[in-house]
Amino acid sequence: MDAAAVEAVWRIESARIVSALTRFTGDFGLAEDAAQEAVAEALVSWPLDSPANPAGWLRAAARRRAIDAIRRRAALQDRYAQLATDAVAGEDDLDPDRIDDDVLALMFISCHPVLSPEARVALTLRVVGGLSSEAIARAFFVPVPTVQARITRGKKTIAAAGVPFELPAAGERRERLGGVLSVLYVIFTEGSTATSGDRLIRPDVAYEAIRLARTLAALLPAEPEVHGLLALCELTAARFPARTGPDGEPVLLEDQDRRRWDHAAIHRGLAALAKAAPHGLGPYGLQAAIAATHASAPSVAETDWDRIVLLYEALGRVAPSPVAELNRAVAVAMATGPEPALAIVDELVATDRLPGSHLVPTVRGELLTRLGRFGEARGELELAARLCANERERSVLLRKAAALD
Amino acid sequence: MSKYMLIMRGTDESNAAMMADIDAMMAASREFIEEMLKAGVLLAAEGLDLPSRGVVVDFGGDTPVVTDGPYGETKELFGGYFLLEVATKEEAVEWAKRVPAARGSKIEVRRVAGDDETPGS
């Protein structure tokens, strides 16, 4: 069996192995190290002698490594004796439902609020997604040692804080679930907003976030916002095939060939949205509903912009944010006209709620162009280009500014 | 990530074996589907009705000829599929190895070609 086959088994089994080991040892960091050692062992030994039951082999090897690690800790002799007895009892006496709870607990631990946002992202991708440090580093354009340091520090923080391996109590759960959802969404946006750079790995990061969101939806089918996030990701990803041109340049929504949208993904997104909606939508569900309105329109002109304005107003009430406000301005411009939209943007500028963002002058420039105030529009678009960090977007902005001469 | 289709290819013998203990097979399938859902990789799964209830459209002549369901020559029949979204072909194969399939049947693992590519390119 070659390395790719080892990785395939690892990817399917890693979350369950780490979570079962964490429950077994009570030590999340040790469990993760033992599982990593087991996969390293498999990479060496499987090409020579491939096991009949690769998943069972990995589980047993990880368990052996964990016991070895505990044995080395002289102070934990008693615990070791107890674990060694448990180990004899066999390892497949695990309740499958318990395993699901274990994977869920693992997601909550990886996204624990004691961790920095970067550590949450790295731990989730590594421990729940089974991605290597190299893959995570490639995806986030950071050096491999940085990712490794974040993972190590994260595990130490979890240990130091004495985080128990269990699902949060019911009262705390909703709040903590919000943290898990936001980490998955950060991973998704990181993978989906980059239109430049290494195009091969970044969409894969977005799809990994979708895979994890699907997992979460299967484990927590009664949580509307989980379905809302899944719907939002599916509907956004549905546009990926039409979003860049042959040279990787971004294609604006109005210019996208909608026949190239992934209609199966739209269908899945709408199905997830239906599950998110029974008692009103939360912030992810509302954003998904906006994406769904775009997805079901044949063109920009035929889009139900009034509905999008209403959805942005609802979003502004449940989760006020300057970005949502800016998007509402764009929708108002499409539904009613540039004049009232400009008033919303000017209010954002006056209150300085998006300082340093290229998005405000971008939208302002577009609105001023539509109002025929070309001189001011050019100034805004040039300002936006100066503030914009993405090469591809910057060239689009400069082209638009130049077209106003 | 890529999409892969796991195509179930039963034979008359394996289909008969499956029908002999259909409840056990259905239970195992449900469990397997559940496992793929929880791994976040399953996009779709369908099983086909009996081949005798189908029709065959034959393009052997100048005009298509329609006959009732594939009879005879049924060594390996498409019986259903799983559509997965996974990172590698090996991962798709690993899932295929876990399908609760009747003895004698086969599973074909095929990547779904993107809309901007010609198969084989």
How would you describe the overall organization of this protein?
The complex is a heterodimer of chains A (405) and B (121). Chain A is an all-alpha fold and 405 residues long. Chain A has 20 helices and no strands. Chain A is elongated, with a radius of gyration of 24 Å. The termini of chain A are far apart. The model of chain A has no long low-confidence stretch (mean pLDDT 89). Chain B has helices spanning 12-20, 22-38, 89-98, and strands at residues 2-10, 42-47, 55-58, 65-68, 77-86, 106-111. Chain B has three helices and six strands. Chain B is flat. A four-stranded antiparallel sheet of chain B has the order 2-5-1-6. A two-stranded antiparallel sheet of chain B has the order 3-4. The two termini of chain B are 18 Å apart. Chain B has 121 residues and is α+β, with helices and mostly antiparallel strands. Chain A binds chain B through residues 4-5, 7-9, 11-12, 54, 100, 103, 203-204, 207-208, 210-215, 218-219, 241, 260, 264, 268, and chain B through 1, 34, 37-41, 43-44, 85-91, 93-95, 114-116.
SSE topology sketch:
The complex is a heterodimer of chains A (405) and B (121).
Chain A lengths: L2 H23 L2 H18 L8 H19 L4 H12 L7 H15 L6 H12 L4 H8 L3 H17 L9 H24 L7 H19 L4 H14 L2 H4 L19 H14 L6 H13 L9 H14 L3 H14 L2 H13 L8 H12 L3 H14 L3 H12 L3
Helix pairs in contact in A: 1-2, 1-3, 1-5, 2-3, 3-4, 5-6, 6-8, 6-9, 7-8, 9-10, 9-11, 10-11, 11-13, 11-14, 13-14, 14-15, 15-16, 16-17, 16-18, 17-18, 18-19, 19-20
Chain B lengths: L1 E9 L1 H9 L1 H17 L3 E6 L7 E4 L6 E4 L8 E10 L2 H10 L7 E6 L10
Antiparallel strand pairs in B: 1-5, 1-6, 2-5, 3-4
